[in-house]
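Q: Sequence in, structure out?
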Amino acid sequence: MFERFRLLASLAMHDLWHDRKVSMCIAAALVAVIAPLLLLFGLKFGVVSQLQSELLNDPRNLEIRMISSGRYDAEWLEQLRSQPEVGFAIGMTRSLNTQADLVQDSRHFVDNAEIIPTAEGDPLLASLSLSQPLEGLDVVLSESAARRLNVEVGDQLSLFVSRRLNSRAERGRQSVVVKGVLPAENFPRPAAFVALPLLISLEDFRDGYRIDAFGITTGKVRGEVGEELAENARGEKETQFARARLYAADTDQVGKLEQWLNAQHIDTSSRLADIENVNAINHVLGLVFGVIASTALVGCLASMLGAFLANIDRKRKDLAVLRLLGFDRPAVAGYIVLQASTLTLIAYGVGLILYKLGSEVFNQALAMSSTTGSVVCRITFLHGVIALLLALLVALVVAVVGMLRAFSIEPAESLREL
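A: Exactly. Output:
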């Protein structure tokens, strides 16, 4: 059986080589379709994947801002976090209470810096290699704030918060430790990211409560008064938040999460328009590629079919002799499939080389533009495998039609030609 297959394969390959000019024409027709389609798909995939990557790498694209303030308790926050579309959510106090002065010395300070609550899983801090989530008096500064304060990781600085109580101005002070510096591309404004209890303490202090940790012993007392910050501060469960810092799990969930909030009459803003633009580009490019690929495949199929049928008609006598020598119909079918598959593999290999050369030209030329990345034309290994399987499928369809034509050839035809 194996010897018979080897003989059949040898005959098929020798026949291709003998008619190498015709074989080259058939392979060239395939190359003319495979290489442009690989380049076209590479451009589509490269451009769209780059845009999607930029969306995913910038956590601000996942953020949904609650525009108006309200009163949201811990139960509502838990309900919000339980939504499958939510990637990160934490309560925020009133806007006026999310500001404080950061001071390193008399020459290095930031007035009214934003004080932003954070916790484990915060997408904005994902680029930092923090050993553990922020707690207590730890802070992460934005690059803008760190530069103006002239501090580095591990340095201490003072956080000042002011209030007016009983017609008297008071200013609380708390030492904090810098645990990280957030790059400017992630957050350009001067800000300090703190654990939620510290932000709640700032709000309590401004609301007239006594916070011993701030060095001010006047004000209303809530519960037990201790010396440590944590003993004076409310927890999340006792706090009514004005809004929430909210991030979707991924770009596909931003719209759904906005709808969930809007259904509760909560006004929001997000970068949903940018996300929809990328999806629209992906859809349009996919449609363009689909139409061009379908047209090219139909043309390729017709071209290969015509070439194969003409070739079989030209070799009617040879195929009849093959049948006369004892090769039955399955053997003749294998003979044709082997030839079609071999030509397809050769054409695919040449097409892949041409795609590689073309993609290098695209990447080199377009990488010089500031609006594109270094790679704009690329396909993955899986894409390559799928393209090869599709090419073999086209060859198989052509081979099946060729087989039906070959089956109609009778062995006696070879005797009539003698």
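DSSP finds twelve helices and ten strands in the chain.
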